[in-house]
Amino acid sequence: MFDNFDAVLLARAQFAFTVSFHIIFPAFSIGLASYLAVLNGLYLWTKKEVYYELFNFWKTIFAVAFGMGVVSGIVMAYQFGTNWSVFSDKAGPVIGPLMGYEVMTAFFLEAGFLGVMLFGRARVGPVLHFFATFMVAVGTLISATWILAVNSWMQTPAGFGMNDKGQFIPLDWWAVIFNPSFPYRLVHMVLAAYLTTALVVGGVGAWHLLRKTAPRRAGKMFSMAMGMVAIVAPIQIFAGDAHGLNTLEHQPVKIMAMEGHFDSHPDGAPLILFGIPDQQNQRVDYAVQIPKLSSLILKHDLNAPMAGLDTVPRELQPPVAVVFWSFRIMVGLGFAMLGLGLFSLWTRYRGTLTTNVWLHRLAVAMGPAGFVAVLAGWVTTEVGRQPYTVYGHLLTSQSHSAIEAPAVATSLILFIIVYFFVFGSGTFYLLRLMARLPRDPTPEIGDAPIRTAGIVPGVASPHRDGGHHGH
């Protein structure tokens, strides 16, 4: 029944499906590992039990999310051999060592200290336990560094040559790793991970503040999370703008698709806020736009000329509608995060951060926003690179394995069934864990009966030995 399907399109759909499941877990665990290190450090510094209680609450959630991220990542690696063997053969001399370095440095570091972080505090003591937690956090950041170096090289390849077999051969490893888009992509992704985690922690804290289950613990985590959102959201907007300018320089066609610019604009390009891209007719229908604002944002000049997709052959254009809308979802959520951060600053200034019900409801609603923004940004990046796997050098249509459509479709269906069952159950378990924040300890008030007058609770009474003598 799948004989008439396109094997390349099915292989792309399979990789997109698996990477979408995978990326949400590292995006969460990168930020959560750093949050755990901060909580552990604050407990060592201040000796306040609330930090250790929050550490114990979130470390279990981290362990589950980390495990799900590892499992979902392993599956992706096999697809390089099953569905994309030509790409693996041609680009393997460059990306193979980089992915190997990720395993030898980041994964081994995380694996070495993860058990100590989760179970070893009583054996190694608080200082070494903090060090282990810090090393796990460092490991997640190193892992992100190597993986983003691989992806960035595919986006903006540098430091390579070609051998007589048509393979990419590294000539300068520094240029390969620190390719033109790598610093921007790394900063943008790490900030996205921190924002994603802050929104989840803030959403959980707000949920428990609304339910009044553990106001002391929930208030502390909510305050820390909203502080993180207020700080990181504006930084992320500036980092995204810098990343966009870098993309304009090295991948201008992707920017044309993101902006919906089918036509060139010699006297300043408009910023199209909304519309319906029609790639077949090379136009945006029902466009709502602001004249010349795109030129101002991208080139800091209202009248700066901007080339459009009319300068690009049809077969080299990415799917414009997908890139156009995923970019707007990402940007829209970014400004919503900024609004949440500003709202939290206002309530913090007024002393109502942990009592403002509308802020708490908004924080709960925004809890999943980081995951959606990460997925939208990933779609923008990867679909916008099409029709290439290695931008400008290797077409996607030339990268796939000699495999028939029915085989790819069968494995895709199996992936969908297994993933929704396994990771759906895992996600449900994570939500159950987040909902089980233990109640704050009840303050000790002594064991004397509470009376309406005459005796203060907790003060010694001559009748405490069990004979209440008429009371």
Automatic annotation (TrEMBL):
Entries under Pfam families matching the protein: Cyt_bd_oxida_I
GO cellular component, one term: plasma membrane
TM ranges: 20-45, 57-78, 98-120, 127-149, 186-210, 222-239, 322-346, 358-379, 407-431
Subcellular location: Cell inner membrane; Cell membrane
Iron recorded as keyword: yes
Keyword hit for Iron: yes
InterPro entries, per database record: Cyt-d_ubiquinol_oxidase_su_1
Protein name: Cytochrome D ubiquinol oxidase subunit I
Membrane protein topology class: Multi-pass membrane protein
Keywords: Cell membrane, Electron transport, Heme, Iron, Membrane, Metal-binding, Transmembrane, Transmembrane helix, Transport
Main localization, broad class: membrane
Similarity comment: Belongs to the cytochrome ubiquinol oxidase subunit 1 family.
MF (Gene Ontology): electron transfer activity; heme binding; metal ion binding; oxidoreductase activity, acting on diphenols and related substances as donors, oxygen as acceptor
Any one Gene Ontology BP term: aerobic electron transport chain
Organism taxonomic ancestry: Bacteria, Pseudomonadati, Pseudomonadota, Alphaproteobacteria, Hyphomicrobiales
